[in-house]
Write a structure and sequence with these properties.
Bound molecules: zinc ion
Shape: elongated
Strand content: under 5%
Structural class: mainly alpha
Pfam families: DUF7474
Number of helices: 11
Strand order of the largest sheet: 1-3-2
Order of helices and strands: HEHHEEHHHHHHHH
InterPro entries: DUF7474
Number of strands: 3
Largest sheet: 3 strands, antiparallel
Radius of gyration: 18 Å
Length: about 200
């Protein structure tokens, strides 16, 4: 199944399987991706207001563009100042920022860590999430190993592997296959919430 570089603005899928109620179901993927690249192309060269961006985008400003911009803001690839000016984060700024997930369900996984009973889902979700936000495999591995320590996950036990490094290395296939993080993260969060 082909994967796409940007998440669907409606349901965040990165393949052709949308959520049942997604308003972009049936929209050709090149049109969705073009909406993202239209916006990024303008913001790469200029910091401008949302109103100016709409004018700058040559094709008609569509629901796809609106959704793409909302997604870029929510994912914090684009910042908006109080005066409405939009700014595209540099790749380095963005990588720094995304190493700490701030939205649920990832925030619970990141801050509280995993507990026995959901380790598979939690580690899967962490790897898939870092892959989705664009980190390389070495960066992903480093972040997930750090998280296993800092969140207390490794200390809680329940792993067969001898070390955090071995655990993460053994799940490299998750990174390479580009699985979605959402379902695994939701299932892990449910187990973590019950244990708290
Ligand atoms: Zn969708």
């Amino acid at each position: 199944m082909p994967r796409f570089h940007y998440p669907c603005p409606g349901c965040r899928t990165t393949n052709s399987l949308h959520d049942a109620s997604c308003r972009f179901e049936g929209t050709p993927w090149p049109e969705i991706e073009n909406a993202y690249t239209d916006i990024i192309a303008v913001l790469t060269t200029d910091e401008i207001t949302e109103a100016a961006l709409r004018t700058e985008v040559h094709s008609d400003w569509s629901d796809r563009h609106k959704g793409a911009l909302e997604t870029l803001k929510r994912d914090r690839r684009v910042e908006q100042d109080n005066d409405g000016t939009l700014r595209l984060l540099t790749a380095a700024e963005y990588k720094e920022l995304v190493s700490e997930p701030t939205n649920e369900p990832m925030r619970t996984l990141y801050e509280y860590g995993s507990v026995p009973g959901c380790h598979d889902h939690a580690v899967f979700a962490m790897i898939a999430w870092y892959e989705m936000v664009g980190l390389s495999w070495p960066e992903t591995r480093e972040n997930v190993v750090n998280w296993l320590h800092s969140s207390g996950t490794w200390a809680r036990g329940g792993f067969e592997e001898p070390s955090p490094e071995a655990l993460v290395e053994g799940k490299r296939h998750v990174y390479e296959a580009g699985y979605g993080w959402k379902q695994a993260a939701q299932e892990a969060k449910a187990v973590i919430d019950r244990s708290r």
